[in-house]
């Protein structure tokens, strides 16, 4: 494994300036409708993705030219669904404060600059890139990747290729990274994005007419052809901020897929909110041993663990049950802390309002004493209220 210090993005300020390819998009949509079966994305990620926030509103009921123009014609249009409003923000003091304590402690790859904010700002980092530093450090801490010549990774729901990008930048001598997705915009843009970031790598896609081969550095494919991937051939299987927005049958399907694809002793890395859209069962196979189960700085809800497991022989359900019990304590502590913060905010609001009322009384009293007219008083009062 090579280490680069600090981690540096390619084309940092222009990387997201990509136009969609309507013909490619239409091909993906047609194939999805014909062959996707029950692996087509659930409502949240199908044609109406993000439409409520655009002019099209809730009238959308299919993929159309108009929809392509409004929601998919430029990569930037999908950044919010992929990484969220917070994730896409340029790195700032608040983001660094949120991540730094945790990241410094786990940065065994030595990817962080001494001044994270200065380096991030000069290298076009968004907050989501701090999440990538977190993922890559955690993933590699639990596996002996340095011993491998070529690392094989399968990620389901990789967005535009946020984490693939880090794996593909020369941290390893050689990587084979497969991105499996079911959302036309993600299938299209992950290919366009990674190709533009790494013109010298072998990036293949089912929708470029490429036949799957382990020789690709990166290969993008829809989930309805994932049966073509060879069993026990991946060192790491990944799903981040993605199953949380699926349906039960999708999550069950991908667990079975990960179980088939991951090598014995290989790693499974999940990082999802379990109290968001998908509230069903996380039917984790008994023979996946839990190595790590904690919230991280990216957790935006109380039950949002990063869960790292190893595919083993045996039954690890009892151990997991105990670790889940301990994690529940973290959730309760988080909820109590949230409650405390809300109450503190109420008290602060009350104090502010009391202060303002007291000031009004003082002003009124002053007006009475100095004989200032009521109209003058209201002028002063309004000006103060406007200011803040
Ligand atoms: C919120 S984005 C997260 C992207 C990426 N993992 C990250 O953290 O930057 C959710 C991802 O899951 C994918 N996705 C949604 N539903 C899916 C499904 N049923 N099957 C496969 N991928 C799906 C989306 O296309 C997208 O790539």
Word description of this protein:
This protein folds into two domains: 82-315, 3-Layer(aba) Sandwich (Rossmann fold); 334-387. With 388 residues, it is of the alpha/beta class. Strands 3-4-2-1-5-6-8-7 form an eight-stranded mixed sheet, sandwiched between helices. It has helices spanning 22-35, 65-72, 79-87, 93-106, 116-122, 127-141, 162-168, 184-197, 248-261, 317-370, 374-387; strands at 151-156, 175-181, 203-205, 218-222, 234-240, 262-271, 288-295, 305-311. Helix content is 44%, strand content 14%. The site of S-adenosylmethionine has 20 residues, from α3.
Distinctive features:
eight-stranded mixed β-sheet; 388 residues; alpha/beta; 2 domains; binds S-adenosylmethionine; Rossmann fold
Short description:
The chain is an alpha/beta fold.
Layout of secondary structure:
Blueprint: H1 22-35, H2 65-72, H3 79-87, H4 93-106, H5 116-122, H6 127-141, E1 151-156, H7 162-168, E2 175-181, H8 184-197, E3 203-205, E4 218-222, E5 234-240, H9 248-261, E6 262-271, E7 288-295, E8 305-311, H10 317-370, H11 374-387
Parallel strand pairs: 1-2, 1-5, 2-4, 3-4, 5-6
Antiparallel strand pairs: 6-8, 7-8
Helix pairs in contact: 1-8, 4-6, 6-7
């Amino acid at each position: 494994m090579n280490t680069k210090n600090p981690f540096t993005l390619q084309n940092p300020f222009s990387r997201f300036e990509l136009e969609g390819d309507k013909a490619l998009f239409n091909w993906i949509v047609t194939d999805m409708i014909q062959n996707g079966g029950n692996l087509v994305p659930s409502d949240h990620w199908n044609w109406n993705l993000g439409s409520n926030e655009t002019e099209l509103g809730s009238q959308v009921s299919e993929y159309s030219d108009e929809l392509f123009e409004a929601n998919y014609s430029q990569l930037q249009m999908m950044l919010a669904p992929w990484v969220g409003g917070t994730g896409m923000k340029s790195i700032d003091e608040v983001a660094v404060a949120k991540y730094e304590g945790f990241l410094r402690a786990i940065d065994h790859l030595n990817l962080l600059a001494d001044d994270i904010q200065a380096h991030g700002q000069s290298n076009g980092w968004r907050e989501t890139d701090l999440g990538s530093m977190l993922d890559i450090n955690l993933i590699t801490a639990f596996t002996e990747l340095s011993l491998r010549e070529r690392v094989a990774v399968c990620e389901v729901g990789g967005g535009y290729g946020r984490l693939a990008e880090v794996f593909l930048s020369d941290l390893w001598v050689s990587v084979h990274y497969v991105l499996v997705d079911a959302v036309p915009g993600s299938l299209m843009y992950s290919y366009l994005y990674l190709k533009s970031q790494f013109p010298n790598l072998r990036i293949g896609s089912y929708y470029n007419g490429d036949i799957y081969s382990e020789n690709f550095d990166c290969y993008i494919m829809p989930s309805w052809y994932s049966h073509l991937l060879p069993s026990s051939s991946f060192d790491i299987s990944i799903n981040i901020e993605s199953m949380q927005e699926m349906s039960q049958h999708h999550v069950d399907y991908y667990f079975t897929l990960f179980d088939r694809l991951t090598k014995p002793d290989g790693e499974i890395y999940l990082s999802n909110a379990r109290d968001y859209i998908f509230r069903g069962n996380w039917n984790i196979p008994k023979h996946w041993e839990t190595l790590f189960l904690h919230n991280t700085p990216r957790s935006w809800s109380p039950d949002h663990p990063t869960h790292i497991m190893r595919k083993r022989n045996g039954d690890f359900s009892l151990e997991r049950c105990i670790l889940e019990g301990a994690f529940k304590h973290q959730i309760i502590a988080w909820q109590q802390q949230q409650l405390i913060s809300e109450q503190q905010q109420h008290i602060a609001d009350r104090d502010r309002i009391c202060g303002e009322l007291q000031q009004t009384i003082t002003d009124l009293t002053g007006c009475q004493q100095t004989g200032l007219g009521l109209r003058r008083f209201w002028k002063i009062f309004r000006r103060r209220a406007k200011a803040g």
